[in-house]
Automatic annotation (TrEMBL):
Superkingdom of origin: Bacteria
Species annotation: Hyphomonas johnsonii MHS-2
Domain Thioesterase stretches: 58-130
Listed name of the protein: Thioesterase family protein
UniProt cross-references to InterPro entries, sorted A to Z: HotDog_dom_sf, Thioestr_dom
Pfam families: 4HBT (PF03061)
Gene3D superfamilies: Hotdog Thioesterase (3.10.129.10)
One MF term in the entry's GO annotations: thiolester hydrolase activity
Length: 157
């Protein structure tokens, strides 16, 4: 990622949201990503920027699916040490999100069988539903020495 790329990103977000400190790997490429935790649960979000768009300057379907995976998977998180992988993600695209839109999403657990969790989710912008679907996630153990996904990398001075 270049400095020009990160410099052009928008951090204008609604109250209650904070940036996810995901500064390495794939999350860094598709960010910035945001979340808020309140009495209603966990909601994740992003603002549609130029690097998220398709040729029509709407959020690319691949970005919306990537975001759905992160937003709906968040429903299985018990705490910051909960690790999970996606088994299946089924998405119904209902509407587009133009450049500049603030996109939000969350999920609700609807089934649990051992370490397999089924989530129903929704992605929206304002009062418009963009996507609905179902995710199936598997809880996994963190490997020894593995960083948390949203931990800032420590750099040597």
């Amino acid at each position: 990622m270049t400095d020009d790329f990160t410099r052009s990103q928008t951090f204008d977000i609604p109250a209650g949201y904070q940036e996810l400190p995901w500064h390495r790997g794939f999350g860094r490429q598709v960010g910035p990503l945001f979340e808020k935790r309140d009495a209603t649960g966990l909601t994740r979000a992003f603002r549609v920027e130029e690097h998220h768009t398709n040729g029509m300057m709407n959020a690319h379907g691949g970005m919306l699916m990537t975001f759905a995976d992160m937003a709906w998977g968040g429903a299985v998180e018990r705490n910051e040490d909960t690790w999970w992988v996606t088994i299946r993600l089924m998405c119904d695209f209902l509407s587009g999100a133009p450049l500049g839109s603030f996109v939000e999403g969350n999920g609700t657990v609807v089934g649990v069988a051992d370490d397999i969790i089924t989530v129903e989710g929704r992605i929206w912008s304002g009062d418009k539903t963009l996507m609905r679907g179902t995710g199936i996630f598997k809880l996994i153990s963190r490997r020894e020495g593995q960083q948390k996904p949203f931990t800032r990398a420590v750099q040597d001075a």
